[in-house]
Design a protein that fits this description.
125 residues, alpha+beta, Arc Repressor Mutant, subunit A, two-stranded antiparallel ribbon, 5 helices, elongated
């Protein structure tokens, strides 16, 4: 199981998201990635190390070439983590709405009562 913080931190960077997106199609080398991204090869290597440390990508060496591919297990963990955060946020929102319903009903009732005490837009005396 990958470290949840490391997964989120690795995924938070836009360049790393772009790297992951490129690796969705097939395994690529650092050079192939750098050719498709607006960053240098050393920068791509650094991003790949972060992704590899988090477990989001795997490295395979074929001769002098190093190919990087997605790690489906860690991506599934990342998705599960984001799904659970989303569920928690929706639950919190739902709880907030349920708490606010009585307040909104009271406010509506107060507005109606206030209007019934006015005649011609002026307070009734």
């Amino acid at each position: 199981m990958a470290d949840r913080q490391a997964l989120l931190a690795a995924f938070a960077d836009p360049t790393r998201q772009a790297v992951l997106n490129l690796l969705r199609r097939r395994a690529l080398t650092v050079r192939e990635l750098a050719d498709r991204l607006p960053v240098s090869r050393p920068a791509v290597s650094q991003h790949l190390q972060v992704l590899k440390s988090a477990g989001l990508v795997e490295e395979e060496r074929q001769g002098t070439h190093h190919f990087f591919r997605l790690n489906p297990a860690s991506l599934a963990e990342l998705r599960s983590l984001v799904d659970s955060l989303w569920r928690d946020a929706l639950t919190a929102f739902s709880n907030f709405v349920e708490k606010e319903k009585p307040n909104r009903a009271r406010k509506k009732q107060n507005k109606r009562a206030d209007r019934s005490h006015r005649v011609g837009g002026l307070p009734h005396r």
